Design the sequence.
C-alpha cells in the first residue's frame, strides 16, 4: 500500500509553536481518491508512457459508457414490452 501523502501532525500546543494551517483540501482528498490509483495502474501497465495510458483510459471509459447505454436500451425495451403485454391482457 502507498504511503499517505500527508501525515497527521501533533496539535500546536504539543509542538510548542503557532498553529499550522491544515493541508489543502485537494491534497487530503488525493490520498483517499481512487483517481490516483487508477492513473498509476494505467501508467504501470503502459510502462510509464502517459500518452498511451491516457488513450487506454479513454478507450476503457468509452467502452464502459457504450455498454451502459446498451443495457439501458435493453431495459427500456423490456419495460415497454411488459406494458404492452399487460395492456393486451386486460382488454
Sequence:
Amino acid at each position: 500500500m502507498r504511503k499517505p501523502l500527508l501525515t497527521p501532525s501533533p496539535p500546536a500546543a504539543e509542538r510548542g509553536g503557532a498553529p499550522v494551517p491544515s493541508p489543502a483540501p485537494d491534497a487530503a482528498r488525493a490520498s483517499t481518491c481512487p483517481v490516483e490509483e487508477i492513473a498509476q495502474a494505467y501508467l504501470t501497465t503502459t510502462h510509464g508512457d502517459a500518452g498511451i495510458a491516457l488513450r487506454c483510459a479513454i478507450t476503457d471509459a468509452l467502452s464502459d459508457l457504450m455498454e451502459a447505454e446498451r443495457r439501458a436500451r435493453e431495459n427500456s425495451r423490456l419495460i415497454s414490452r411488459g406494458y404492452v403485454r399487460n395492456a393486451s391482457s386486460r382488454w
